[in-house]
Each structure stands twice: as structure tokens, then as C-alpha cells.
Amino acid sequence: MNPHVIGIPAFGLAVLLVFAFFGIWVTDLQGQKSGGSQLSGDISAEAGREIFWGKGKCYTCHSIGGEGSAQRCPNLGTNDQFSDPIWVRAAVRKQSEGYSRERYIVESIYDPNAYVVEGFSKGLMKPINKPPIALTDDEITSVIAYLLTEAGANDAVPEDVMAAVLDAQRDFASAKVATEEFVPGMPVPEGDAEEGFYVFEEMKCHSCHKIDGMEFEAAGDAEGGVGPDLTGIGDIQTLEYLAESVMDPNAIIVAGDGFKGDDGNSKMPEFHDTMTLREFIDLVAFLSSLKAEG
Ligand code: HEC
Ligand code: HEC
Question: Which of 13, 34, 218, 240 is most buried (CB neighbours < 10 A)?
């Protein structure tokens, strides 16, 4: 253990102690990842904060209290809808099934559709250890440590809590628990993203959807706002999801104000009669190329 933990900055002695105590378990977890990284000094709430607001892309879908602007997914802090932050409500979500809060929070990251928060859409959040986000187990541990500190545990996450997180994580990381996937049988063919830009413009997708940093020819009355902001959508969604969103808008309806019409269906029209297959494939490639940064 020691060579791995020397030189870790500020964050919790607590976490270090946990790793010392549960070193064997952690080694076990590491060992079961194919080509997994070594346990490094990078596991910390501070690292978790950077991942949450950076490469983990959590911020594209989730805000924490007043921090962040994402609306499509549950606020992980408190707001009008949630009077308790995630760490508190995690304790009761699957209490009747004997879940600890640690197990719930771990499951909600590795297997998000096992429990779907009321009012939100099944299938929207993908297992975070798989593409497109594909965080390592260590990175996920850090994000959880961060959510803990955000929820009022201050900087020092109690040892027993971190131990329970690692214990729950071990099951999921080693894939002992099968995760449900939403993948159709046919892979999406590779398209031309540049051509897809013109399809997006021609189909006037931008009359309902905004993409930061992109200008399109006049769209008519609405300039985005009817549908979700698509900035960075390629970073958080699979090709299959993007293809399905265009082919069948009602398959998964994003939760959000005004996304559904009075009939309960998505306000997004179908493009079956106006789009060629070539255009469709290029459009999906374009959506998938939309990155959050740069
Ligand atoms: C594509 C959007 C999306 C991304 C990206 C995303 N989530 Fe989620 N998340 C959701 C949705 C939708 C739900 C609610 C539906 C459900 O329970 O699956 C949810 C639920 C959760 C919950 C359970 C909330 C509760 O109240 O019980 C947690 C915890 C969570 N996400 C953490 C994360 C973390 C951490 C990340 C980044 C590593 C992340 N999510 C990235 C969409 C997303
Ligand atoms: C009349 C407005 C409207 C038009 C035009 C429209 N959409 Fe949508 N779109 C929506 C709404 C509303 C939603 C959210 C409800 C849902 O999930 O279907 C949505 C959802 C989506 C999503 C899922 C977003 C997410 O956050 O997961 C994608 C991707 C998408 N649209 C792409 C497109 C593309 C590409 C076009 C053009 C071919 C298009 N839309 C045209 C209204 C529109």
C-alpha cells in the first residue's frame, strides 16, 4: 500500500486510513479491472469535484443546489423539488429492499436504471463506468467522496462511510451485478459529422435546440428553448441513444418543463417523411461529435 499513498495532498487522512484498512479489498477491486489503473493518490473529494464539473460530465445533466444550470436531471443538492440532498435521500430510496445509502448511491452510478427517480426518464443516464463517459472505478470513488462532502460531511468523510462505499463498489466494479443496457441489435453506421451539421440546419432542429458556439441560418420564431440544450450531448450519450432520439422521440422523453405536449407525447416531431437514411446517419454522427469543451 505505502508506495501508492505517499505524497497525497490534503484530503482526508480518513480516506487514507480506509484504504489502509481495506487495502486487500481495494487491491481485489483493482485486480479485477482489465488493464485497470493502479490505486493512485488521486482519490479524493477534491479530485471528485473536478471530475463532477469536468470530465465526468455530471454537470451537463445535474446541478447541485444553486451550483450549475442543468435541469434535465435530479438536482443532487436541494431545490424546490428535493428538500434533502442526495446523501440524505439515498438512505431511503431503496430502504425497503435493504439497501444502505452507500449501496444506493453506488448503484445509481454503475446501474442508473435499476431505480428511476420519480418524474425522470429511464434510460437517460448511462452506466458511468462505460462509454461515452467511462470513468475508472477510482474516479467514481472520488466523485462519491465529493457528493458526500457536498452533502454536509465537510472535508473528512467518515471512515466507515468510505468503507461502505468501497464495499458496495466492489460488487459493481467487478461486474458481479449485471447492468441493464438499452442497446438495439443493430450498430449505428458511421456517418459524416460535417454533412450532419447541414442536415441539422436544413431540418431546422435549431428552432427548438440550442448548441453553444454554433450559428445556424434563421430558424423562424423560436431559437432553441422548446427542446433541451444539445451542447455537449455527444459527451454524455451513446450513438444508439442519439439515433433513437431522432427516430423515435417518444421512446425516452427527457423530463423538463414544456417538453411534452398536452397529449403526453414529446413535442419533437418525427422526421420519417422528410429525412433520407443518409441524412439520418450523418445527423447522428454530428450529434455525437458535439463535445462539452472546446
Ligand atoms: C445524460 C444525463 C446524465 C448524466 C451525464 C449523469 N446523470 Fe445522474 N441521473 C440522470 C437521470 C435522468 C437521473 C434520474 C433517473 C434515474 O434515476 O436513472 C439520474 C440520477 C442520478 C442519481 C440518483 C439521484 C437520486 O435522487 O436518487 C445520482 C446519485 C446520479 N445520477 C449521479 C450522477 C453522477 C455522479 C454523474 C456523473 C459521473 C451523473 N449522474 C451523470 C442523468 C444523468
Ligand atoms: C418542435 C421542436 C423540436 C424540433 C424541431 C426538434 N426537436 Fe429534438 N427535442 C424536442 C423536445 C421537446 C425534446 C425533449 C423531449 C424528448 O425527449 O423527446 C427533444 C429531444 C431531443 C434529443 C434528446 C436530448 C437529450 O437531452 O437527451 C435530441 C438528441 C434531439 N431532440 C435532437 C433533435 C434533432 C437532431 C432535430 C432535428 C432533426 C430535432 N431534435 C428537432 C423538440 C424538438
Answer: 240
Cis bond upstream, residue 132 (ω within 30): yes
Backbone Cα Rg of the chain:
21
Instruction: Burial-class residue 33 by CB neighbours within 10 Å (0-12, 13-18, 19+).
Output: middle
- End-to-end CA distance of the chain: give it in Å, rounded: 38
Looking at the predicted structure, is the pLDDT value of residue 237 above 60?
yes
- Map residue 87 onto helix, strand or coil: helix
How far apart, in whole angstroms, are the C-alpha atoms of residue 112 and residue 127?
6
State the Cα–Cα distance between residues 91 and 210, nearest whole angstrom.
37
Report the alpha-carbon distance of residue 18 to residue 37 in Å, rounded: 19
- Asked if 133 and 235 touch (Cβ cutoff 8 Å), the reply is yes
Query: 67 forms bridges with which residues in the sheet?
Result: 64
Distance 281 CA to ligand 1 centre (A): 28
Q: Which three cell numbers stand for residue 231?
A: 451542447
Residue 260, strand partner residues: 266
Domains defined along the chain, listed by start: 2-173 (no CATH), 193-288 (1.10.760.10)
Question: What's the gap in Å between 112 CA and the centre of ligand 2?
Answer: 22
Tell me the per-residue pLDDT of 16-36, one tens digit each, with 9 for 90 and over: 444 444 444 444 444 333 333
Identify residue 68 by its one-letter amino acid code.
G
* Distance from the alpha carbon of residue 209 to the mean position of ligand 2, in angstroms: 7
Among the bound ligands, the one closest to the CA of 265: 2
Per DSSP, the chain holds a count of helices (H) and strands (E) of: 13, 0
Q: Is residue 37 helix, strand or coil?
A: coil
Give the residue-averaged pLDDT of 40-64.
87
**CA–CA separation, 156 and 158 (whole Å):** 6
Q: Which comes out higher in pLDDT, residue 14 or 142?
A: 142
